[in-house]
Amino acid sequence: MDLENEKIGPAFSAPDSYFKDTESRLLQRLGIQKELLENQAAETVETPVTIAAAVTPLDTLGVQKRARKQDPITAKSQGINKEVEAVGSVVIPPLTFTTNENPEWVNFGAISEEVSGNGDQIKVVSYGDLLSNTESNDAGAPSLNQENIAENITSEIAEETVLEAVNLDQPVTTVETPATELTQIETPASELEILAEIPAELSTVEPSVIVHEVPESVGLDELESYISASVQPTSTSLEPLVSSEVEEPVVVDPAKQVESPSPRIAEEKPISLEAPATAFAPIAGRQHESATPGWLGVAAALAAIVAAYFIWTAIQPPKVDTEQVALQQEEATVPEAPLDEQTPIDTIPDGLQLVEPLIMEEMPKYKEPNVYTITDAEEMPAITKRALQDLEDNGLATFDMEDELFEELDFESL
Amino acid sequence: MSNAQRLSNCTEDELTAELLRDGMSSALLVELVSRYQKLVYYHCRNLLVSHDDADDAVQNAFIKIWQNAQQFKGESQLKTWVYRIATNESINLIRKRKPSIDFDEAQPEMAEMISEDLYLSGDDIALKLQKALCFLPFKQKLVFTLRYFEGLSYADIALLTSTSEGALKASYHHAVKKLEIYLNVLR
To answer: Which domain holds residue A22?
Structure first.
């Protein structure tokens, strides 16, 4: 191989990402910010352009006076730089604060007492209060909230149809009933009357939906006739329910009725009085009656255990016979070919002692250049040095000046 | 045009003149790093073989350049000066790793590290040449690396190593012949 004529590339090739990383690490160690340098340079270039763009100077006498008043330091100064003034007036928009927090999460408890001391003037208005305020006239003058609500209601009524207006009025009247219930709890006799009145009012307001229970055997053609025939019995069957419901509180001891936690419970009771018979009842009865043999469950459990055992054994890795493996390894290490054929010829053997004898055998084959070692080069006269240089330039000889190749390098020498 | 852009368009002579006139600035160092970082890394890598050592040498070299810029006299090219500092840092690192090292002898143990290290080109002949370089004395290895891989002239190498061109030619000649024998024997 002729290295002089046959160029071999470098053995190392680092990616660009490594060099970028190295550069950033190095600049970080030295405290240099590359981006900042570029930005600073850009700013210094742009500054004269901005000043040159200004045409008409502004009258800033008032600004100077204000500055002197506000700041004692600027009061003694010469005023604002004219070049800066020439840029023009700067309008600072009002600051706005935005937050991502949900307003529902605002912690009112965190408000200090000094602020919350005015809490007497703050009225926490709930939906129920609004409704009661529209009804009651106990407060002398109506509050602002009441007025707004009244305006809203009237405007809505004007926009909507008459029928909807009637519906709007209804909630106001129907909501009265809980208030009266609260007052009437202590007197159970009157409560019974009110409870009987509530369904009558509700029936006039809310549209009633009647659900007919039709067996599957009834076809679509027969549906109307079946419903018309079945309406009369259902309406009559409801009447006893209501009457029994009304009659039932009369039997109850008034003292117990007063002890009830809330009037709503007494109101809900009639709904759950008689649950309709469901189709599941007979099936549940049959389940109790069905006699599944006990041995069937035991057999199923045993079958499941056996299946799990087979699955587990199938999952397990095959058992390793260590002796057999060792025997196979020994067989594998036995060379099948002579050593001479197995020795790689294109790898560099480790250690200089393996290569050195080969080199020593080959070294006499190439011609040693005419290298002459000169130890006293510094003391040599200039004419002699020039003569040696001529010999070197003409390729006649090479002189090794023995000038301490790796003396401690210092930067002064360059 | 920013200062960094202006420096990136400068020739090496213009950078040298700027360094001598205004001294080392941050922008100039950034330009030197971006311009000579790869050269310095591959030079140190050829000398030290190990990637980590070469990385340390590169970092130390540019820090020395930043700290000792005022000592640059302009008697050589800027590139030669950078190479010299990188070479000096590589030698310091070798001495630190192995204080009793003799630069007139080879370090064959370095050849064992090549195949397992990072960022190899994958060229077999290049790897063999790199391993063969480890069997050369360090002086010959340095001269061969600067001349063969970096393409520096004998004059620049003479400035860099403070030696005569004749000695360099002889050293390079010895190195080439030894490497050819290595490669012929090991092929």
So the answer is: 17-80
